[in-house]
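Fold this sequence, please.
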Amino acid sequence: MPNPIPALSVTAFTATSALGQGLDAHRAALGAGRSGLKPNDFSSEPLACWIGRVEGIEAAALPEPLATWDCRNNRLAWLGLNQDDFVGAVRVARERYGADRIALVLGTSTASIGATEEAYRRLDADGRIPADLRRREIHVPHSLTGFVAAALALNGPTLTVSTACSSSAKAFAHAERMIRLGVVDAAVVGGVDTLCDSTLFGFNALELISPEPCKPFDRARRGISIGEAAGFALLERSDCAPDAPRLLGYGESSDAHHMSTPHPQGLGAELAMRDALARAGLQAAHVDYINLHGTASMKNDEVEAQLITRNFPSTTRASSTKALTGHTLGAAGIVEAVIALLAIADDTVPGNAGCDEPDMHCGPQWALRNESRRVDVALSNSFGFGGNNICLAFAQAERSP
């Protein structure tokens, strides 16, 4: 078991998803149990499914100095940065530490691949990429992190994490290690993923896409609904912001079991959750709420349900929020971390939307409807393809054990 680590303050955080732009929009949607899923109107060819599409991306415009980075993914990143005064918080940190002492760690599964798809659909008569898309910056996996570094004027270490659905949650772990080791003094973490044909048709080819809105942990679930989102958080040492919510710990593991299917007993996921509690100096009984990975795929939900039921007391509440946002892939970790932080801030457990008849493996921990109750400690699970598992542990500062 790992030893406890010093907590970090989460001094700013924000998210944009199909639920809306910013924290207030997410609070309102979560409080009303209002889903952002709509019938698919995005893919280049018809595909009968529901998606979590962010309104306003097409109309968003990057400022002229950043125009070379223009693509759907970076436009969504720009929307995500410019809300909840996140840019202002980073500016203050930059003035405090210096631009080269702030790390930037972002997760994404496809980065700006949508722009590359468009480029190949529009090859000119000579088979070349059209001139307006002939920009190297938007055809590389590091496009997102390069763009955000330029937008925030950061010169510290920059890292792109691409471990499928765990990507932007693993960004927290990378950042914590860099701060603890003295490489940097603060870190901007997060992730962005946008809708594109590669994910929609790719998951459909795996027979994982639901033709109806996804129903996490429901007996009648039929698969996932893809969404898009952007989210960011600023991490600093706890003495810099003693009243801010805390990142207490994290746990990471790799199943080494199958390319896409989780370990049948969830051993890797269980190890990640145990390590998160150990680094946070917590026991399972201390956990008030768990935001579950809960994709609504048959195997993921079965395995995760058994994991929660056998490891946590009935006083712990658990739910998936993907029926509201869709599965935002590389951005899922940061969006659901933000939801966990809102649960702590508002003492509200979001209900497991979309679930009418819980899976037989679900225990008394499941919160099927919103609950007003004290939330001192919240976990957030993110489990990616190939068994890339991570669990994050958060708490309000004055309630940290």
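Residues 8-396 form a domain with the Peroxisomal Thiolase; Chain A, domain 1 fold (CATH 3.40.47.10). The mean pLDDT is 95.
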